[in-house]
Design brief:
Blueprint: H1 2-37, H2 40-50, E1 56-60, H3 63-77, E2 82-84, H4 87-90, E3 103-107, H5 117-126, E4 129-134, H6 140-144, E5 147-150, H7 166-186, H8 190-195, H9 200-206, H10 209-212, E6 221-223, H11 228-238, E7 242-246, E8 252-257, H12 258-263, H13 274-277, E9 279-280, E10 284-285, H14 291-301, E11 305-310, E12 313-319, H15 320-325
Parallel strand pairs: 1-2, 1-3, 3-4, 4-5, 6-7, 10-11
Antiparallel strand pairs: 7-8, 8-9, 11-12
Length: 329
């Protein structure tokens, strides 16, 4: 009995794997055909998008609409203002969201989605640029477009050949192509990306140490000839477990941590000056460095505080907890 159950399980696993491989192969083949289809219309579409005075409006029905929402989100997050309009909502007032300076990208694999008719007519009436994404350049959508970005007519990976699978994958990849090309054309940088992704893992990865460091009066800082009573007071009041020391030129010459104090504690410690006990030439970083790089330095050096300097003058300090609490890794 056990062997029969195991045999049935093995048969099912084989069938599932075969189906998975067929699906992957068909979708890969569709993407390769998309690559073969790329022509001057891609550059024409990118020119229209890049030169748009207004925003990019994405629309599509059903699964095409879901892909359209992702394309709009990708464009918006990488420097090309974009949003999604549902075709049905457009017919009931949301057409007013589309201005004559905007560019509309309409998606329909067949090119015959009836729900798009009102948007197509609206674009024609007000002279709004229309980019059509469809497998059929001679469809209603294809004929209405100023530019047609053609999807491969390669069938669906669905075993029934009905559910949008390969076609939506090709549309998604085409959206990624538009996004990537616009990033290159506009010279969009990591800093630009960070400004649009302040939250979540992306935001924490792209934060600079200048975004997290303590500055101004919050920096535990004294002159290097300070007595140890002042050092202890500065360290405990700023609550960062360290104090940095500067010379007469305002340059950082050393630092002391609470661990250093414990190690050098003696009866005459309060009769000594900071420069006698401080760690000279401590590790420092520039304010432009990524927070993730600072965390790696701190882990490698086994330190919990690091001063941020500009021309060797302290402009900030960061504690390892400042990084970890912001999800930097």
């Amino acid at each position: 009995m056990q062997s029969l159950l195991e045999n049935k399980q093995n048969i099912q696993e084989t069938a599932d794997k075969n189906c998975a491989v067929r699906t992957i192969n068909m979708e890969l083949d569709t993407i390769l055909k998309l690559r073969e289809n790329l022509d001057a219309s891609l550059t024409d579409a990118l020119d229209i998008i890049q030169n748009a005075k207004g925003r990019i409006v994405i629309t599509g029905m059903g699964k095409s609409g879901h892909i359209g929402k992702k394309i709009a989100a990708s464009l918006a997050s990488t420097g090309t203002p974009a949003f999604f309009v549902h075709p049905a909502e457009a017919s009931h007032g949301d057409l007013g969201m589309i201005a004559d300076t905007d560019v509309v990208i309409a998606i329909s694999n067949s090119g015959e989605s009836r729900e798009l008719i009102d948007i197509l007519n609206y674009c024609k009436r007000f002279g709004i640029k229309l980019i059509s994404i469809t497998k059929n350049a001679f469809s209603s959508l294809g004929k209405a477009g100023d530019i047609v970005l053609k999807l491969p007519d390669n069938g669906e990976a669905c075993p029934l050949g009905l559910a949008p699978t390969s076609s939506t994958t090709a549309t998604l990849v085409l959206g990624d192509i538009l996004t990537a090309c616009l990033i290159e054309r506009k010279g969009f940088t990591k800093s630009d990306f960070n400004a649009r992704h302040p939250g979540g893992k992306l935001g924490s990865i792209l934060q600079r140490v200048s975004d997290l460091m303590h500055t101004g009066a919050d920096i535990p800082l004294l002159e290097e000839n300070s007595d140890m009573q002042h050092v202890l007071l500065e360290m405990t009041s700023k609550r960062l477990g360290c104090v940095g020391f500067i010379n007469s030129d305002g340059r950082l010459t050393g630092m002391l941590t609470d661990g250093d104090l414990r190690r050098c504690m003696s009866a005459d410690i309060f009769n000594r000056k900071a420069f006698e006990l401080m760690t000279r030439n401590p590790k420092t970083v520039a304010k432009e460095i990524m927070a993730s790089e600072v965390l790696k330095i701190m882990n490698d050096k086994k330190i919990t505080n690091i001063f941020v300097v500009e021309n060797n003058k302290p402009v900030g300090v960061v504690h390892i907890h400042d990084l970890l609490n912001q999800g930097v890794a």
